[in-house]
């Protein structure tokens, strides 16, 4: 919140947090202070389900390079699956 | 000065106060044993939450002779591991300023109601807590000293204002009634050296009592010994400046 650079995006999926698997319905993406990464700022993604309380969270804290690489890789993998006719989007 | 032959005892525990909107807000309170009278300190936690560092800092102030209290500004978000709670608050863009100020005021009044208080209360905060400390001391009467450690967002551009943070704390400078100690790192990105200069200029313009120190070789959070941002020499000097500043302002 120190940078105020944050966005929430709704999504569907499941995540494994400290209490086991849960149905997550939102990702909070921020460029702000991380809790663990040894940097002043990081690209933070929290996969959450707010209705299940603060503990329903899967957290990652990424460097800029890693975050960009992740985005690229997700697109590449999805493209490959789409090319093979494996994607069924609703 | 602490000497090895003196008795020292401390009571440290979780208490509850009535914060903004009458809400029950947990707070960590640490105070020296004895009838005092002791000066009081309100400690405002940083963005990473109401965490272990703040409990330690609260006890540290008690060790130095202050009846101290640190309210949980993230109370309404729910309870859990401090980083999980703080992550939820981060996603919401922070807690509303009005709510934070009211919680801080309630913590100050809790101290003032204690029979061991000497009548003086200061406020200390780091990171977002530094900003909250400046904000609270500007909007609420009853603080006798402010320690702002690298509080980002005191200076805000109009496009940074949000419903939670509708007014930049610097805009309340004329209302500030207590002296300010500011400790900053020259390599910090929030606040930057330029933003600290703007804040200092406002304090000067309004004739306020302040003392700012900018540390070379330090960035954001240089007191945090559990983070790579820790800077030993700067942190030791910074704590010394805090004790000297508060000692001169909060003695009965």
Q: How does this model look, in words?
A:
The complex is a heterodimer of chains A (90) and B (252). In chain A, strands 1-2-3-4 form a four-stranded antiparallel sheet. The longest helix of chain A has 20 residues, at 64-83. Chain A has one helix spanning 64-83; strands spanning 5-17, 20-32, 42-48, 57-62. In chain A, strand 3 (42-48) and strand 4 form a beta hairpin. Chain A has one domain (5-83). Helices cover 22% and strands 43% of the residues of chain A. With 90 residues, chain A is an alpha+beta fold. Chain A is globular, with a radius of gyration of 15 Å. Chain B is an alpha/beta fold and 252 residues long. Chain B has a single domain (10-250), classed as Alpha/Beta hydrolase fold, catalytic domain (Rossmann fold, 3-Layer(aba) Sandwich), CATH 3.40.50.1820. Chain B has six helices and eight strands. Chain B has helices at 52-63, 82-91, 97-112, 128-139, 193-205, 232-250, and strands at residues 10-18, 24-32, 38-44, 67-71, 117-126, 145-149, 180-185, 210-215. In chain B, strands 1-2-4-3-5-6-7-8 form an eight-stranded mixed sheet, with helices on both faces. In chain B, helix 4 links the parallel strand 5 (117-126) and strand 6 (145-149). The interface between A and B is medium-sized, with 26 and 33 residues.
